[in-house]
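Case 218 in the screening queue. Each case pairs one protein sequence with one candidate compound; here the compound is zinc ion. For every case the pipeline is the same: read the inputs, emit a complex structure as tokens, and attach any notable structural observations.

Predict complex for case 218.
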Amino acid sequence: MTAQRINPSILSADFVNLQHELERIATADLVHVDVMDNHFVPNLTMGPPIVERIQAVSPVPLDVHLMIADADRWAPGYAELGAFSVTFHAEAAADPVALARRLREIGARAGIALKPGTDPEPYLELLPEFDQVLVMTVEPGFGGQSFMPDMMSKLRAFAEAKARLGLDVWLQVDGGITVDTIGIAAEAGADTFVAGSAVYGGVPEERIAQLRSAAAAH
Ligand code: DX5
Ligand code: ZN
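Case 218 output:
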């Protein structure tokens, strides 16, 4: 079986106690950090100074999800501060391949994210340029929304391209992932699962374990 990763999103954590909230997810694979600019999405979270402090105290590596415009300008800084992976949205970069190459040069894994309305077609042949693809299963911007099963055909298209090209690119899903939906995404080819409200809505360590078994049982 391919390795499966559970990446809790701290968007659902208590922002005034971030260090404690990070320690509660020490059994996760990575911590998913949602950066929003109130421009690319209608919500605002944090920027480089806070992410740098998260990087300094987190027990697990950082999976940074940039929901910001002008990714060309901002994404490299997150790689430089030590993020394990930096994912930007397809529409937010002037030249996604050039930006991915720059992120890899700095030493981060490069990810490309697709909103529900984004056509996967142009990116299938570009898969070798990326270390991960994030298929959004909600409209980006907010936690606690419902999983969009319609996105599974997009995930399957990436899973087929990945197999055809013989790549080990990670296929990530983000939005509405719970013990009830994670198996649907795993069955469609996802191997990396972001979950915010499902993890922080209970005892994080227990929720992470439950998500792991539900993903493995698909
Ligand atoms: C939404 C963010 C997600 C969010 C997911 O735009 O990208 O990472 O935290 O939250 P849940 O798991 O609650 O849908
Ligand atoms: Zn996210």
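Case 218 observations:
- The two ends are 11 Å apart (CA to CA).
- The mean pLDDT is 98.
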